[in-house]
Amino acid sequence: MAHRRCIQSLARHATTLIYLKKTPPLSTLEVLTPKPNPAITIPNLEPSWFILWSHSRHFSSGKSDDSENEVEMGEVNDGEAENDEAQSDLDRDYSPEEKEAEAAAIGYKVVGPLQRSDRVFKEYEPVFAVVQIGSHQFKVSNGDCIFTESLKFCEVNDKLILNKVLFLGSPTQTIIGRPILPDAAVHAVVEEHALDAKVIIFKKKRRKNYRRTKGHRQELTKLRITDIQGIEKPEMKIDGKPLKAAVKKPEKIAAAA
Length: 257
Hints:
This protein is of the alpha+beta class and about 260 residues long. The chain has 5 helices and 11 strands; from the N terminus they run αααααβββββββββββ. The longest helix has about 30 residues, at about 60-90.
């Protein structure tokens, strides 16, 4: 085996020497002078043994670094694409019909801005409703405050009508929708567009030197419930308590001595 390896190495060196003798050296003048033929072919002056052994080696650490870089670039590209889509949605000009259609799909309708002469806030009434806004359901009563997902087609102090009412209840009556009550409505006023508490998103891949930490604050809209319609409301006393039916107490009969 050793003799065979020596013979192979000698043969390689001999072929390189023969190849170098056959190719004449190029002078600097020949290289610099222009020729009429545009396709100029310059022979490769490097020996064959150098070409064979000049390939780059890939170690395990290098491969892992490349894979991490690819994963990171993919995540960055995905994040940029999501940001571009969100920005395009915000910059898009919606027609009034499109705004009404999207708002109705979410479950609300914008009536208009709140005026100073409006007296929308009323006293508490013993009536509650279950409404759906987007993909969330809320049990509300008159005067309650709820935080919903961000409603993009309304401003602060706008009056809203929540159309997707699923359930209505009072001390004397209960109405269940199938799945929605068409004649019921919940009135509300937009009080604030705010951000939820910060949520930390941490990603880690063990043995890959990969750690990413991000924060997110969800956009919310604060609504104040002003009125619930579609159900009979019980009469209220002066002290604010509903009327109750009189309950007869059993009379005590004195036992004969």
